[in-house]
Write a structure and sequence with these properties.
Length: 467
């Protein structure tokens, strides 16, 4: 996040991404001779769902519809069982999807001229669908707007490059770089290690530029062939859209070079996990001033309450920050991943870090989310924690100045425990809405049961002949 967090523009590149309305969309598509449009919707896991249609049909046809069940689908394509708190739509009727023309951009990896356009989900009556992740984030942003506040965020997304892996029974391995050798050691911030994948990185930048997506910086992270992309700060909805599109872009660029890009939280047991750190500040909508800093540059009560809200409520939304069984493998003591909700100044061993900055750039970095988290839901959950802290006037504990990597506090250590906490907290249910909470809980419980049906290599290794 730069030194001036009052800027909340989306930083779209001129003419490459986003138009005002349907009339401008017609012109934009016609100028580029776009033949097809990918009408896409991020689901609960952050996977792009939708339809491909010819441009002519997009403008002449009826509103796009899809079954309501797309927001009740697990990562494996299954659906949770009905219970006393969650029930499927018995007829699986259609939802209606409206395009957000601010998101219109090209699909530069397609051979034919193709555009992509993110849509929002509505009921037949025109109400926002409560379980659609983009609507969940809008719901939380509405709470801020009602207070005259505007959040500003800057995500940092880590990912691994790996050799193609077509048999899931085999562990992932680092890919071979231009030297002809895979990485074996850890190469934090190494320029030479980054240069091993120059051609791929050039493609990432090129494909991103053609979509109007702006990368602030790219670095080599601690793990073998682990990278991190930092995005410029801005409006949370716009940044969630960018993370959603960046994930698609990076995967496509990697495939061009016979590699996979994975955003799994812990893809390799002997390597660090991948995070999505979220820098957050809040500005006054009228003045543009950062409400975390006073007139003389001092910390405000709002800033301390924002921190305290994260300390109190992060355990209840961990199942959003760490959405899969694999996610909890990242939370390991004595690692770069946080195992606590302590806070401190420029301390990377706590879950909540306050970077040193100018007063106008004062912010909180939430280091808990994994890179596998749905960006819309992760941003919504983090901002919800801060909001609750501010409206309740909560106070944080003392900042930690030492190494807290071994100090566990409050964060659940498994998906089932995390989901139970998510469902039980009344404040969380109120800000997210009961329907979303119960649907999300049912999906995650079904995913856990699917995971438990698979026998792991560890079990065959240590139990087969020993018990």
């Amino acid at each position: 996040m730069s030194n001036d967090t009052s800027e909340t523009d989306t930083n779209y590149s001129e003419g490459l991404r986003g138009v005002a309305d349907v009339d401008e969309a017609r012109i934009w598509l016609n100028e580029r001779n776009i033949q097809d449009i990918e009408c896409i919707v991020p689901d609960i896991a952050g996977v792009a769902r939708g339809k491909m249609m010819p441009t002519g049909k997009f403008f002449s046809g009826p509103v796009m519809t899809m079954p309501a069940s797309i927001f009740a689908q697990t990562i494996s394509g299954d659906y949770p069982e009905d219970d006393d708190r969650f029930q499927h739509n018995p007829i699986d009727g259609d939802l209606y999807f409206r395009p957000d023309y601010n998101t219109l951009t090209s699909v530069p990896w397609e051979t034919d001229p193709t555009a992509q356009l993110i849509h929002d989900a509505y009921t037949r009556e025109g109400d926002p669908v409560e379980t659609a992740p983009r609507n969940v984030l809008k719901r939380i942003l509405g709470l801020y707007e009602a207070k005259g506040w505007e959040p500003v965020v800057a995500p940092e997304i880590e990912f691994y490059l790996v050799k193609p892996n077509t048999d899931p029974d085999y562990p992932l391995e680092p890919p071979t770089g231009r030297s002809g050798r895979p990485e074996v050691g850890r190469q934090s911030y190494s320029i030479s290690a980054l240069n091993e994948f120059d051609d791929l990185i050039d493609d990432i930048y090129d494909l991103s530029e053609k979509q109007g997506l702006e990368i602030d910086t790219m670095i080599h992270e601690e793990g073998a062939a682990q990278m991190e992309i930092n995005l410029r700060h801005g409006n949370p909805l716009a940044l969630a859209d960018q993370v959603f599109l960046f994930k698609r872009t990076i995967r496509e660029a990697a495939l061009r070079h016979d590699m996979y890009a994975t955003f799994m939280s812990k893809p390799m047991s002997n390597q660090p996990g991948s995070a999505m750190h979220i820098h957050q500040s809040v500005v006054d909508k009228e003045t543009g001033a950062n409400i975390f800093s006073g007139k003389d540059g001092e910390e405000t009560p709002a800033f301390l309450s924002f921190i305290a809200g994260h300390q109190q409520f992060l355990p209840y939304v961990t199942c959003i920050m760490a959405p899969f069984v694999n996610s909890y493998r990242r939370f390991a003591p004595s690692s770069a991943a946080p195992v606590n909700v302590y806070w401190g100044y420029d301390n990377r061993t706590v879950g909540l870090r306050v970077p040193y900055s100018s007063p106008q750039a004062r912010r909180l970095e939430n280091r808990v989310p994994g890179s596998d988290a749905n960006p819309y839901l992760a941003l919504a959950a983090s901002l919800a924690c801060g909001y609750l802290g501010m409206i309740k006037g909560l106070q944080p504990d003392e900042p930690q100045t030492g190494d807290c990597s071994e100090m566990q506090k409050s964060l659940p250590r498994g998906l089932q425990e995390a989901v139970a906490l998510f469902e039980e907290n009344e404040d969380i249910r109120e800000v997210f809405g009961n329907k979303f909470v119960q649907t999300y809980r049912a999906i995650k419980q079904e995913e856990f049961e699917t995971f438990m049906s698979v026998i792991s290599p560890w079990e065959r290794e240590y139990l087969l002949l020993n018990v």
